[in-house]
Amino acid sequence: MGIIRASEQSRLCRYRHNLDLLFFHIDQLRYVVVELKTGKFQPEHAGKLGFYVSLVDERLRREAHAPTVGILICGDRNDHTVRYALGRSGSPLAVSTYTYDSLPPSEKNALPDADELTAALGWDEEGQELHG
Length: 132
Known about the structure:
Shape: globular
Radius of gyration: 16 Å
Oligomer: single chain
CATH topology: Trna Endonuclease, Chain: A, domain 1
């Protein structure tokens, strides 16, 4: 899988939409849009991801390519909220979470501790995004 440079992403439209990550999966011949959210999944995140997937499909995807996939990685999610948010989507979209605690010890030692990461991400003790 190869990452698409920001300069290439800016060709998507006249004004730049800030995709977090855009990859091209060489074996599957498809684009993969990845959105990163530090807080809990919100239904509007699915709408934004769907927008990016449609934009990439319309502007970059060629006839020989498989449909673009959208992946949203967030700090937390409610499975019911995700199901309803993605329920009528015609595009292949997925939502996943990440956790610092599941890293192998060797990788965990190379990173700041959980409190430092939480502070850097702007979260409170419950893992909610701080709005400042």
